[in-house]
Amino acid sequence: MKKIYNDKISPEKRFIIKILLCSVYLIVITILSVCSYKIYQEKQNIKSWSEVSSADEYAYIEVSKMSEKFAYYSTNKKSIHFVIEEEETGAWHTYLIAIKDSDYSKYKEIIDYTYDRTDKVPKPIKVYGYPVVITDELKQMAIENITNFLPAENEVVITNDNFNDYLTNSYLDTTIEREDNFNILLFITVLILFIIVILFFITIFDKNKITSNIDDLVDELKEKYLKSKENNK
Asked: What pTM does this model have?
């Protein structure tokens, strides 16, 4: 049975209701759009290695110097290297990274420059990956080989006791592909945004339904209020 809409509403009143509803929708759409964008940006944000706090955080190191491999995992064909990341201030930090053995050519210019095989200063390479905890065996190999990499003027002797202070307890594994994890908060925000946008267009293009329902609701609330007022007398 077709519903008969409230015909008491004048065109002027109907227009005002539409304007108010559309204004509310636009405000909500703006807020949800900003929230969705910020959640998405946060999801896409890639931290620098120095800011990483958990193993599931995708991170990067900007490599300006790099050693030859000092350890190799034959099972997944990845090699471990020392790298140096330099700050704009001139300070530098030493880290460990894992790369695919087949990617060696990408880093050859930096490696050659590190070992003074060339005078050409290479452009730093930003490498991405996930943290992997350094095993005791790898730690010992790093301690034994670090002296062949660090600049001669370095006075710090790396030991088991100070290893984590200077090299951290993890290496950046660039062989692990980035995971695109499902974000439930982003999904809910976008879903609500989609619903509000639909309501916005329904309000604009539907001549009667939304405004009549709103007016009927107002009349119903008004009637309940008046009855309640009479009963309290």
From this structure: 0.61
- 9-to-16, 21, 223 alpha-carbon distances in Å: 11, 16, 17
Secondary structure (DSSP) of 96-160: EEEEEGGGHHHHHHHHHHHTTS----PPPEEEEEEEEEPPHHHHHHHHHHGGGTS-TT--PPP-T
Q: How far is CA 94 from CA 16, 63, 156, 204, in A?
A: 66, 10, 12, 61
> In 10 A of CB 163, how many CB atoms?
17
Residues 6+ apart with CB under 8 A from 215: 6, 8, 9, 13, 17
Least confident piece of the model among 86-95, 96-105, 132-141, 198-207 = 198-207
pLDDT tens digits, one per residue of 126-172: 999 999 999 999 999 999 999 888 766 566 788 889 998 888 899 99
Q: What share of the chain is helix, strand, coil (3-state, %, to 5)?
A: 50, 20, 35
Cα–Cα dist 24/22, whole Å = 5
